[in-house]
TrEMBL record:
InterPro entries noted in UniProt: Ig-like_fold, Reg_prop, Sig_transdc_His_kin_internal, WD40/YVTN_repeat-like_dom_sf, Y_Y_Y
Protein name: Histidine kinase
Organism: Niabella pedocola
Pfam family, one: Y_Y_Y
Signal sequence extent: 1-19
Domain Two component regulator three Y: 699-761
One annotated GO molecular function: kinase activity
Domain Signal transduction histidine kinase internal region, chain residue ranges per copy: 816-891
Lineage per the UniProt record: Bacteria, Pseudomonadati, Bacteroidota, Chitinophagia, Chitinophagales
Keywords: Kinase, Membrane, Phosphoprotein, Signal, Transferase, Transmembrane, Transmembrane helix
Amino acid sequence: MRLLGIVLLLLYLSAPAAAQPNRFFFRKLTVANGLNDAGINAIAQDNKGFMWFATKAGLNRFDGKSVKTYSFVPGDPGSLPTSLSRCMSADSSGGFLVGIEEGMLEYDVTADRFVPVKALTDTWVTHILPVNKHTVYLGTRKGLVKYNPVTKAAFFYNKQRDTSLPKIIYQLEQKNGFIYIAGGTGLFRLNVATDQMQKIPLPVPAAARVIATATDHNGHFWITTRNPNLLLKFSADFSACENYSRYIESENSTLVNFSAMIADRSGRIWITTHLDGLMLYNEQTNAFDHFLHDPLQMWTPSTNLHSALYCDQAGRIWVGGNNGINYFSPDKTFFHIIPVFDHDRDKRNRRVARVAAEDKNGHLWLGTLDGLVRYDPRSGNYKEWNNRKGRPDMLHYNSIRGIVCDDAGDIWIATGHGINRYIQETGKMVFYKKKDSIPEVFYFSADRDRHGNIWFSSRDEDGFYYYAPGEQKFRSIRSVPGLNVFAGEGGRKLFQDRKGRYWLGFNGNGLGMYDAITGKHHRWKASAAPGSIAGNSVVDIKEDRSGQIWISTFTGLSVIDPVTLRVTNYNHTNGLINNSTGPLAIDPANRVWIGTSGGLMMLDSSRRYFTSFGLQQGLPSVDFPEHAAAALSNGDILMPTQNGFIRFTASAFEKENNSLTPFFTTLDISGSRQEPLLASSIHLKHDENFFTIGFAAVNYDNPEDTWYAYRLEGIDEDWKYTRNRFADYTKIPGGNYTFRLKASTDREQWNMPEQLLHIRIDTPFYKTAWFRPLLLLLLTGGIVFFYRYRMRQKETLLALHGKAQLLEKEKAMVMYESLKQQLNPHFLFNSLTSLSGLIDTDRKTANSFLEQMSRIYRYILKNRDSELVTLREELAFAQTYIQLQKTRFKEGLQITIAVEEDDCARKIVPVTLQNLTENAIKHNIIDPDTPLCITFSTANGYLLVKNNLQKKHMVETSNKQGLASLQALYAYLSDKPITIEETKDEFRIYIPLI
């Protein structure tokens, strides 16, 4: 078998590569769209429809429009752990589970955070398979686990069963009452009803590890293994086997070229690889089609290295790799992309499409910047005509602007330097020159009128020329009565409507119309005047099923009623995504399709609502050139873009009235703060009545075309309809409100579920019903109180005056007592004694001591009339005083100052610190072996002075009045009292700072 696999691999590698299938458009989601990072490990969808992507840096939640990320935040216990996530799944009870290398997390939607499951701590979870509300099977590195999301209990099979069970499980699949277990020791099957497990014998080496399983719509069972790398398809009873291993093998035998396998909702088998991109099993060819990255074809996947694969509830396929997410709808591919050329797309503008036509054989003739192409849609074959240096010219010019197929099947080509005709019967290319009565000039288009004449519009000479098949001659517009009035004007487009009227689009000179029945002419130009058209350079002209004429221009879209001549213009102010309009088409439902320089748009038959299509809806480019669209024989529309043609069946497009469930995202209050809206009710203060409610809806097909209807009951008289995702409200009165929200993909259909947000706004107290009676009562009471107060005031005025005199007297006495304390004879005597001793022993220190004494008495004299001084001044004075005392007591006295700088500007009574320091010295023993420690500090508006207690047995000259006088003085100056605390070991005084 191994030899056969090698032979098949060599044959596969040597075979020519098949043409890249273009039937799917891969939408992209990368770091540029908000992902944490581009390395995808796992993909899942929750019960609300959100898509979740696990990357190296954390988790990402996607709603079709925006991405919300979750990751590890240092110091935040509610953030994600650093452990990588390898699997995720919604459970059957409405929750969402995330398997990580260290256990499993459950998402708490109300708190918007992930909570670890304690029963699975230190268990590497590799796969999650919900079965019912109470049962979730888990594949882990410790074997199979049955988990109950309601009770949070986990049952480990390997701890209860024999050792033959797989210890490492890679994937689980439910089928016909069994759980199929892909494990490191093979494939097992668990009977859900009996809880019995058995191993399924497979024709693979004993060491093979079964990595993934999938069941297709025919009941075939697919498996992939490693060691060796095998891809096998079994019959439903495992009796027959077919080998497809060549698709996941690589030239390097050590490299694993496989990552994931699933069966989608239709039972198709999809496989992702590390080298060969995405693969889809093709039953017709019994082979796998490859979908590979092509940097020149943006509709292809963004990478060939994939690591995760998922099919969502709507059947979309999500592919994760090393460059983010690719997703597409395999059954809803609306646009089919036709590249302009099948090779050398990166050369000479060979990606730019211009114009196309279909011949009688079903071939598509494509006009490009680099010549003419014939494309066969059935075979995918291309044939091209272009001019190259060193060989005969195949065309007048490589730049093709117009193509028409005539009744004989011949192809007429308008180029940038003349007209060619390709005769299909003979394969001959005809070059027409001036001798044929048509000049070799620049042509913008080729069109056919209702008589079979082929018209060519030129910016030069007469402007319009035509070929009459009956006469087999070219003629100028000058030779046509009625139309000759337009001769000499540069032409871009000619169209004849069902009534035979000719419509001529000019190159910068507006639009002309000639009605042969009435003989009347009409002209339109772009101007500020009523009845003007949107632009003067006309690109395309089409007639809708109501006979209205549509004109696309460089600066907008116009529609003209040929009977009333009424003009209606469209631009970016009333619906267009971009004013530069190009190809036009009308579908059987009378809807107008418009290619613009910002994407494709569809205007509905009511002419009120536009639907837009961009890159995410399958376009290869949003830039449509200034050329016409083509209608094919089967009704399909073919339009050029700057990156190939798009072909679509417009009649098949129906705006799906999908049931979108909206959700609230953010609440922005008065522009001051923004917070997530997780609850169904909010409570706002009365001054928070300016707010913006943010909302969204899960829409992956066309998020830009999601409509919202909202209404704040009691404020909005009716529903408001918008594509905007925010609702703004200002000056909302206090009260209880309900904000109602709906979402739809169709502006006309609103039979949708609602989301409700209950809002309570407080009413300012002065607007409440009880405020006015209470205010009247308070005013009456105030008047009575004021009258009585005035009477009491008169009675107490004399008493207050006398008390003030007494307080002034007491203040003067206290201040006098403070100054007297500083002039204490004992202090003066002790200071002079110390000075005398210093004069004999240390004259320099004596001088300093004398200077400090003079500063002390100078400070006392300076502030004897001051009621208050700053704490900074008082501290400077105290330090001088402390230096004098340290001269006396040396190491026996230790002073610490720990005052906050912010408190230094506050006020204090003069000489307070000296008084308190002197008081501590007077009452305590001072000795170098047992020093007196005094600390000055501030806190909470107080100055704290504290010292250790080592009291003297007898204190000289203490009259016990110093602190009492200080308390009386501060009671006069401050509302805060002086607080005195004494403990066994410490004495504290709290002086209020003023």
